Amino acid sequence: MNMMLTQSDTAQTRAQDNAARLWAASHLADLPTVTRFVEQRVRRALDSQGRWVRQAFAVTVRLEEPRRFMIHLYTEATLRDLQTAQRVVECAKVDGVGDQVRGGDLWARTEYGWRWMGGTVEAGTERHDDEVRECRDAACVDQWHSWSGDEQNEPCALEIRRPADWCTVHAFRFHGRPWEASCSAITDPTEGPQGLQEIRALAEAYEQMQAECDRLNNQTIGAAA
Ligand SMILES: [Zn+2]
Q1: In terms of residue numbers, what domain contains 76?
Q2: Cα angle, residue 70 at apex, residues 66 and 75 outer, rounded to 5°
Q3: Ligand 1 mean position to 129 CA, how many Å?
Q4: Together in a domain, 160 and 174
Q5: Which of 3, 119, 120, 125 would be a feasible disulfide site paired with 55, CB 3.0-4.6 Å?
Q6: pTM of the predicted model, to two decimals?
Q7: Cα–Cα distance measured from residue 129 to residue 123, given in angstroms and rounded to the nearest whole number
Q8: Given 68, 102, 121, which residue is the final one in a domain?
Q9: Distance (Å, whole) CA 147 – CA 130
Q10: Residue 4: inside a domain, yes or no?
């Protein structure tokens, strides 16, 4: 995110920054983040300075119950876009939102809070280097991946498992690296004994996924030997 300084860093702006940080610490820092896919395609647009900007998500923050950040990922968004969105949330939790922040005009007021409508500036040559190649990993659920030179932009993946409504278990592998299991929670577990069962199911699904990864990693080593 390029946040341009248009005025000198005076004592007044520093005081504003401090006020915004205090506000963020008491209103935003402990909010959960929910991630959803929305039916809107990734867009590219020219910004006011003539740079190409990729818009792959929006971020909203809701200050009324249910209080939360929500990442709205557009169709065709990549793992990189998700990571950028997560950075937007992390920055907001520290620096605040809206007119409190320099470059904060990217945050627009909504009925319940704020909405971040920015994009990420694309380097001039980046898109030319990107190339879509067919995936040659038989275990991967994706048929294609985009590459920048020798770098695979999104990892290979196994079928996602959902041991409970609020959590998912994934496995991924970047080029030249082993398969790795991971899990993520969208909200908190259900309260009470039901929640404990869900946590157990999550742990079990994670172990199974890691076992599957180990099996695939051993196969690869076997094939290379
Ligand atoms: Zn793949």
Answers
A1: 11-121
A2: 140
A3: 19
A4: yes
A5: 119
A6: 0.50
A7: 11
A8: 121
A9: 5
A10: no
